[in-house]
Amino acid sequence: MTEEILAGQATPVQEAVIEAENGATAPTTPAPAAAPAPRRLRLDELKAGEVMPGVVKNIAQFGAFIDIGAEQDGLVHISELSENRVRRVEDVVKTGQDVEVTILEVDRSRKRISLSMKPRYDVYDKVDEESANEEELLSPMQLAFQRAEEKRESQNNAAKDREKSRKEQEDLLDRTLRQHRTQK
């Protein structure tokens, strides 16, 4: 093999083996310096109502643990995963998924962070001063009623669209059958 090295035909691996057999030491290159880990937020820096990005770290039967960049992962209870009823946590989130969460509560004594993935219409809505002056502020009950009406209206519109599509399909079928009958 030493002849192959001299002839320039040896692979780098073969060269390393020959050098090791001869007792030569391979030149070492310094390992690249690892980037410093980003600073983790302390619990006293977190405030209820803040909306933060996070990553699902673990899933349990009762909820999902989310890394929001704090010294402690937060928990989204199964009841806070969606506005709709959730039977299994896996139906809503997967491990490693990026999510947006709202901080509900920070319990510093027990080192726990309660999170929610539900849209927060009630407690944490931020109202612009301009819009507050222009419009009357609605109570939480009025907001809930307004949203329910909007949801019902969108469901009615969807039903009307389905009915319209069904009628168009029936009309197309009728015309096709009539045309087929006249050709015979």
Number of strands: 5
SSE string, helices as H and strands as E? HHEEEEEHH
Helix vs. strand class: alpha+beta
List low-pLDDT spans.
123-134
CATH structural fold name of the largest domain: OB fold (Dihydrolipoamide Acetyltransferase, E2P)
CATH architectural group of the largest domain: Beta Barrel
Count up the domains: 2
Strand fraction equals: 15-25%
Fraction of helical residues: 25-40%
Q: Please, how many helices?
A: 4
Q: At the fourth CATH level, what is the homologous superfamily of the largest domain? A: Nucleic acid-binding proteins
- Oligomerization: single chain
Write down the Rg: 32 Å
In spatial order, strands of the major sheet run: 1-2-3-5-4
Please report the distance between the alpha carbons of the first and last residues: 87 Å
What is the top-level CATH class of the largest domain?
Answer: Mainly Beta
Average pLDDT, to the nearest integer?
79
Shape: elongated
Largest sheet, in brief, is: 5 strands, mixed, barrel
